[in-house]
Amino acid sequence: MKILIATQKPFAKVAVDGIRKVIDQAGYELVLLEKYETKAQLLKAVEDVNAVIIRSDVIDKEVFDAAKNLKIVVRAGAGYDNVDLEAATAHRVCVMNTPGQNANAVAELVFGLMVMAARNFYNGKSGTELMGKKLGILAFGNVGRNVARIAEGFGMDIYAYDAYCPKEAIEEANVHALDSTEALFETCDIVSLHIPATPETKESINYALVNKLPKGGILLNTARKEVIDEPGLIQLMTEREDLKYVTDIMPAADAAFKEKFAGRYFSTPKKMGAQTAEANINAGLAAAHQIVGFLKEGNEKFRVNK
Ligand code: 3PG
Fold this sequence. Notes:
Layout: E1 2-7, H1 13-25, E2 29-34, H2 39-46, E3 51-54, H3 61-66, E4 72-75, H4 85-90, E5 94-97, H5 103-118, E6 134-138, H6 142-153, E7 157-161, H7 167-172, E8 176-177, H8 181-187, E9 190-193, H9 207-210, E10 218-221, H10 230-239, E11 244-247, H11 254-260, E12 265-267, H12 277-297
């Protein structure tokens, strides 16, 4: 069996070494395609492999068509909006993710970005502290829970809304559970997004919603750029000079945000949330173990397609 790691944004070397060990022990062969620049390279690399480990790499119908021997794709991470699940199912390929494995890394970055925004991007002027501020967590999944845990240490007043998580589960974590996304934006000084990119969430963070933030509000995005209505947010930030937007996923309109909102906008150059050795090891090894479990025993835990 041939297992490919296809990562435009590579794992830390220590994670690749760990994956190699798991694959070797299973008696399989590991091949590596890192930092590839063209889709043609990916199409060539998948031609004869049985399994692929990816990150945000786009696996669409064309890739499935090219991968004649492919049985499983594991997205080493949480969000799998980069994989065409219908095409996978049509090609009888199992798709999995590795939920939770990089959640702490993303949650820690939330606070790196939050402090930076609260301190005016370190421009020397007085900013604000996080203690006592109302933090809104939109979606209480693995990342949202880790954000709540860390926020407690900062002494924040923590709120969350999750359409799919019972209020009791949120309150058990010492977090105030709200009834709607609107209520979260109305209530909180800082809102941190942890929703997946789906047809329902696409562009759902729009002008009207963000306009509910109180004066001086901060919108923090370590989720996906697709959930933001970028023209709406640009219009709102033009009208409301008190708002800040900080993101780990560069908007399509990054140049416009940068030009118009100097001192109120920041984007990491590349998504950094899961870029820690620990997260790479956790997600990478989980992916390798899930592939071995699937190929040797037919274990389909964490399968996300039908
Ligand atoms: C995820 O969905 O797991 C995160 O967004 C991390 O994505 P990455 O592996 O591309 O850094």
